[in-house]
Amino acid sequence: MSGELLQCYNRGCGQKYHADKNAEDSCRHHPGEPFFHDAYKGWSCCNRKCTDFTEFLNIRGCTVSKHSNIKPIEPEKPVQSIPDVEIVEVKPVQPAMKRPPFNTPMTTMNPEIAPSVKQNISVSSENTTNANSSEVTVGTSCKNRGCTTSYEGPTSDSSTCTYHPGVPIFHEVKLDVRQDNIYGRKKMTTSVIKLSPVRLYANLVFPQELGATFNIDIELNGVIDVEKSNVQMLGTKVEIKMKKAEPSNWRMLEYRKSSEGKAEVETLNPNDLAPKVEGVDLEDL
Description:
Keywords: Metal-binding, Repeat, Zinc. This protein is mainly beta.
């Protein structure tokens, strides 16, 4: 047994030794434990540390003693608590909200008028009076939409005006709010906007366009919450913000009913198929 080599398990030694030649100063090792913190590596028994792993393995032991073939007791690892299994609650699909009838009573909206617009109401009234007058002063801009020509005198009476007879409309869609903008300078006192859960009615008067009006009366594609909806009248546009009553995606603003009845299915007369089928001689098969 004296010639059998034993493995030393002291940390930092790793040598093999003969039991009969194991002296008090045969083994140089680290009695402490290795530590790894961030980028540093070292031993708890001495103050040496480094960042390179090869250099860490070559750190000379700080204690001298006999070799030992008994493995050191490893520190107990902290028991990791197993998290509780998360229970996912699957809620049933909520049925779609029942659509109110089109003739549901409508609510007349009280618009929020911008302060700058209120200051221009008196000015707009004066401009309307001047527009009704037959006398046109030099430098007056043309009131037709899209035309930027100014009146330069009697010679302007024979010139051609190129303009847009319609009213510009821009639609914007948000996640839970339907916002529609109607552009133009309107008259707040005579313009009317009404809402119901499934209907939008607007009658806007444009005094600067010689009393032109914009009318819209449509059935909405979805259901809205009238109480949470609002209307804003700004200098050049009207913003109608309609709060959706339920989360949904509107492909378009207006609701279009499908045609009544089943879809037409094409029926073929067997006699009409005869000319389309070529004759086949079964004897050739």
